[in-house]
Specification:
The chain has 6 helices and 4 strands; from the N terminus they run αααβααβββα. Keywords: Membrane, Transmembrane, Transmembrane helix.
Length: 166
C-alpha cells in the first residue's frame, strides 16, 4: 500500500469519526446540553480536513502534469516495490505513465548508471536497481557479466576434473 493510499484511508477514518462526534453533539443538544452545538460545529469543521485528506490520497495524478523529477521518483518507488527489478510493462501498469514514457525514463536511468538493463530469461529487458535488490541478488534477470564469469569457472572446474581423472 502506498503512502497516498494510506493518506486516503486515514482521511476516510478521520471523516467518519468526526461525523460520529458531530452527530453525538447534535443529539446532546436535543437532550438539553448547551455544549452540543459548539461540539457539533467543531467536529463538522474537522471533518473537512478528513475529506481533504481522502481526496488528496485517492486522487489520480495526471502524468502529464508531473515534472521530470516527480516521474523519476515515481519510477524509483515502483522499482523499490518490485524489489529492484522492473520491466517497462510493469511500470506502465503501476503508474499512469505511457509505455513510451516508461521506456524513455528507464533508458535514461540506465544511461546515467542509476540502474542496469539486463536481459530476462524470456528475452524481455529488466531494469535492475541494485540498491533495491534483496541481499544484492537479482531474482529473475540474468547478469551477462556474472553469467559469463560463472560459465568460465564452471568450464575451468570441468577441465580440472578431467585432468585429475587422467
Amino acid at each position: 500500500m502506498t503512502g497516498r493510499s494510506c493518506l486516503g484511508l486515514v482521511g476516510i477514518f478521520w471523516t467518519a469519526c468526526c461525523l460520529f462526534f458531530a452527530t453525538a453533539g447534535v443529539t446532546s443538544f436535543f437532550e438539553g446540553d448547551s455544549i452540543g452545538i459548539p461540539m457539533a460545529v467543531l467536529f463538522l469543521g474537522l471533518s473537512v480536513a478528513g475529506v481533504a485528506m481522502a481526496y488528496k490520497g485517492f486522487k489520480r495524478t495526471d502524468p502529464n502534469q508531473l515534472s521530470a523529477n516527480a516521474k523519476e521518483r515515481l519510477v524509483l518507488e515502483v522499482a523499490r516495490a518490485h524489489q529492484g527489478e522492473v520491466t517497462v510493462e510493469e511500470l506502465g501498469v503501476d503508474t499512469d505513465l505511457s509505455v513510451r514514457e516508461c521506456k524513455a525514463i528507464l533508458d535514461e536511468l540506465a544511461e546515467s548508471g542509476s540502474c542496469d538493463a539486463w536481459v530476462g530469461r524470456n528475452g524481455e529487458t529488466i531494469y535492475v536497481f541494485r540498491g533495491f535488490l534483496p541481499d544484492g541478488r537479482a531474482r529473475r534477470s540474468f547478469d551477462p557479466i556474472k553469467g559469463e564469469v560463472e560459465l568460465e569457472f564452471a568450464d575451468l572446474e570441468h577441465a580440472e576434473k578431467a585432468e585429475q581423472s587422467r
